[in-house]
Amino acid sequence: GKIDGQTNLADGVDLIVSSTHDGDFTQGDSNVLYTLTVYNQGNTASSGTVTVTNLLPEGLTATALTGTGWTVNLASLTASCSTVLPSGNSYPPLFLTANVATNAPALVTNIVSVYGGNDAYLTNNVSDDETVINPMIDNSVIVLVGFDVSGQTNYGLSPLLPTTNAANLTCGGLTRGSGVTSGSGAAARAW
Predict the structure, then answer these.
(1) Is the CB of residue 147 less than 8 Å from the CB of residue 38?
(2) Are 37 and 3 in contact (CB under 8 A)?
(3) pLDDT band, residue 131 (cuts 50/70/90)
(4) How many C-beta atoms surround the C-beta of residue 16 within 10 A?
(5) Over 70: is that where the pLDDT of 191 sits?
(6) I need a surface site. Which of 26, 67, 68, 94 has the fewest CB within 10 A?
(7) pLDDT at position 2, please?
(8) Stated pTM of the model
(9) Could you tell me which residue, 69 or 151, shows the higher pLDDT?
């Protein structure tokens, strides 16, 4: 198949490659996917071996590299294919699966290149795929922000709601200020 939008064919073999992904990734994600596609935008079929090399960005670790008709090497993130690629067509895509580190940067770029196949145009053989990585959300810790009333002498009604609906909420490190007793009223129920 063709890559969307490709209509003009260059004279000779002209291989290009793309890297795409769906949506943003999140720190700690497993099995995120990049799809790598080689397209011949030239007017001549390729000949010889075509090799794709991927440079995975910091914070991502490859777990699989697969593609129909490709010979792949996960350790070096390379894949090769010796099948003739006709003019105006693409090889079956390569699928690069990776895990995202819990401390991966917020913005990374996957870089993929293609060479070989008797390509006559080497200046367009690299593609960048910018990827947003959202911070990991830790739902196990809820931080409540309070206020200091230690200098007050008339405590009155609290502006804070007396209950919470937060699931699995554990409060620790709370201390009762001077003048707050637990003999009766709200203080007794809270402590």
Answers:
(1) no
(2) yes
(3) very high
(4) 21
(5) no
(6) 68
(7) 42
(8) 0.70
(9) 69
